[in-house]
Amino acid sequence: QVQLVESGGGLVQAGGSLGLSCAASGSIFSINTMGWYRQAPGKQRELVATINSGGSTNYAESVRGRVTISRDNAKNTVYLQMNSLKPEDTAVYYCYASIQRNGARVFVGYWGQGTQVTVSS
């Protein structure tokens, strides 16, 4: 079994900051890409940021310069630091990880349960 457990999130005023974390646990041999996606009401889930096992990052244009993704490979944890938050950042944020389980040959994508981020104007 593999689980992704998110923490952080909540309510913040526009211009404020918020940090999210996501820890992967279970029968894990290796983790490749980890990342964050978000889904606002009535919209499709969209990429926020990803980071691979080597530390290379990718950001959505809408958050570039305001958001920093990082990871701790020893803890199988990915972080998202969000600054200068805007009301349009309001969404449910989902953690994602591409994981190779012990004894498996392939990587499989896993999702966290989601955490609400609300930015008030």
Q: Your description of this structure?
A:
- The strands form 2 sheets. Strands 2, 4, 5, 6, 9, 10 and 11 form a 7-stranded mixed beta sheet that branches. A 4-stranded antiparallel beta sheet has the order 1-3-8-7, with no helix packed on it.
- The protein contains no helices and 11 strands.
- A hairpin with a 6-residue loop joins strand 9 and strand 10.
- It has 121 residues and is mainly β.
- The protein has strands at residues 2-8, 10-13, 18-26, 28-39, 46-51, 57-59, 67-72, 77-82, 91-101, 108-111, 115-120.
How would you briefly describe this protein structure?
Helix content is 0%, strand content 61%. With 121 residues, it is mainly β.
Outline the fold blueprint.
Layout (H helix, E strand, L loop, with lengths): L1 E7 L1 E4 L4 E9 L1 E12 L6 E6 L5 E3 L7 E6 L4 E6 L8 E11 L6 E4 L3 E6 L1
Parallel strand pairs: 2-11
Antiparallel strand pairs: 1-3, 3-8, 4-5, 4-9, 5-6, 7-8, 9-10, 9-11
User: Could you give a short account of the major beta sheet?
Assistant: 7 strands, mixed
- The stretches of 5 or more residues where confidence is low (pLDDT under 50) are none
**Average pLDDT, to the nearest integer?**
97
Q: In one word, what is the shape?
A: elongated
Strand content: over 45%
Characteristics of this structure?
121 residues, mainly beta, single chain, seven-stranded mixed sheet, four-stranded antiparallel sheet, 0% helix
